[in-house]
Design goal:
Elements: H1 12-30, H2 33-38, E1 57-62, H3 70-85, E2 91-93, H4 103-114, E3 120-122, H5 139-142, H6 148-154, H7 159-166, H8 173-178, E4 185-189, E5 192-197, H9 212-221, E6 231-235, H10 250-255, E7 262-267, E8 274-278, E9 281-285, E10 303-310, E11 313-320, E12 335-336, E13 342-343
Parallel strand pairs: 1-2, 2-3, 5-6, 6-7, 7-9
Antiparallel strand pairs: 1-10, 4-5, 8-9, 10-11, 12-13
Bound molecules: zinc ion.
Zinc ion binds at residues 64, 66, 96, 125, 127, 269, 271.
Length: 346
């Protein structure tokens, strides 16, 4: 009978324990991030220091402002005043700043958030791409678009034009110009690390794939992160298990953070509150913060999160931004195209 060096050899019971431990470790290694989450395990949490030694600080998290008109701007200014009242040290804005990705609208949102008086860290959403630049996808049509594979499957009779749409990922030049270096990036604050990641696939909203440039960026930059520092990831598309509109390869992204002391993931896109817990990691989406779009979960409130980070924990509170009476909000399941077809929500 042979044993590996260092393994217990004196008692059968001890050998068995060693083998069990090995088997468990080997099994854990094979499990994906989603399974680890489901089991309440997250190896990176083991790197956490008991105390970060940093002072508590406050920040706000906002998603899906969907600016499309001056009326949206006036309402959003009021929302930003409510945010300012919370005295945050910065703001995370998790995508879909605008409805149409127009340059002027993106600039308006940027200027309104400047009113916070503290930095706003943005992330791109599928609505921050300009559709139509190639002459195939127009605004009403983008509402019906799923990711390419799916679009072809959904309407084979129109495969020619859908084929063209399939390769029309939209144009994010205006976003890039107005928010330079705000696709994949990280910053530190108060002993915490914040990582903004681009999870979009152009204008597509469903059955999407996180693009390889993001996965590559994570592979290249993860070594620069301090594994022990509490870490927050923010994205537009939800990463929590079984949340609607979660990208197909969300787990491949999460998997990369398994040895990081990841504490929270904040996302938008699904307009509604969802929360997934797994060990130390809390993954959420929130209701939208838009005058003229509503929530996919049927709730009425618009608002944002106020978060307090202290040691390894984040306390989170929802703050509602009241709508004006008789708001013109559009139901998400009632989008209309120029042909009058009923189109799915997103
Ligand atoms: Zn949205």
């Amino acid at each position: 009978m042979s044993h590996r060096p260092g393994s217990p050899t004196t008692a059968r019971g001890e050998t068995l324990l060693w083998q069990q431990a090995l088997t468990r470790r080997a099994a854990l290694k094979r499990l994906g991030a989603g399974t680890l989450l489901a089991l309440g395990l997250w190896p990176g949490a083991l790197h956490a220091r008991a105390k970060t030694g940093s002072r508590p600080f406050r920040f706000v998290v906002v998603n899906d402002t969907h600016y499309m008109s001056e009326a949206c701007g006036a309402w959003l200014e009021g929302a930003v005043r409510l945010m300012r009242r919370e005295r945050p040290e910065f703001c995370l804005l998790a995508g879909d700043l605008t409805e149409y990705g127009r340059r002027d609208d993106l600039a308006a949102v940027r200027d309104i958030f400047a009113g916070l008086g503290v930095p706003t860290f943005v992330q791109i959403g599928n609505h921050d791409y300009r559709a139509g630049s190639d002459g195939f996808v127009r605004e009403p049509e983008r509402r019906s678009l799923r990711a390419p594979r799916d679009a072809r499957r959904a309407a084979p009779g129109r495969s020619r034009s859908l084929g063209a749409w399939s390769y029309s990922p939209g144009d994010r030049a205006a976003y890039m110009k107005l928010f330079p270096r705000r696709l994949n990036y990280a910053f530190e604050h108060g002993g915490w690390q914040f990582v903004g990641l681009d999870t979009t696939e152009g204008i597509f909203y469903q059955n999407t794939t996180i693009q390889s440039h993001t996965l590559r960026w994570v592979d290249d930059h993860l070594a620069k992160l301090d594994r022990a520092k509490p870490t927050v990831v923010f994205t537009h598309f939800p990463l929590g298990a079984k949340v609607r509109y979660r990208p197909i390869n969300a787990e491949a992204l999460l998997e990369r953070f398994r040895n990081v002391n990841l504490r929270a993931v904040f996302s938008g896109h699904f307009h509604g509150f969802t929360e997934r817990h797994a060990g130390a990691v809390t993954l959420t989406t929130n209701k939208c913060c838009a005058l003229k779009r509503s929530n996919h979960d049927g709730t009425q409130e618009r608002g944002f999160f106020v978060c307090v980070a202290e040691d390894n924990h984040i306390q989170r509170r929802f703050v509602e931004c009241p709508l004006p009476a008789a708001s013109p909000a559009r139901r998400p399941d009632r989008g209309r195209s120029s042909r009058g077809a009923s189109l799915p929500a997103r």
